[in-house]
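User: Can you predict the 3D structure of DUF1059 domain-containing protein? Sequence below.
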Amino acid sequence: MKEVICPACGALVEGETDDELYIAAREHTLDAHHYDIPREHVIASAVEVDQ
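Assistant: Sure. Here are the predicted structure tokens for DUF1059 domain-containing protein:
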């Protein structure tokens, strides 16, 4: 499991893979902030967490 924290609001976004994490983060930032976050920003900020 990987997670990233939204820099705009602090929301926690999770995904099993880089692709899932990016899709979830992109959906969040588009819906909540009208911002299309770059994939490389999401992947660079992601951390691996234990389930």
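Helices lie at 18-33, 39-45. The radius of gyration is 10 Å.
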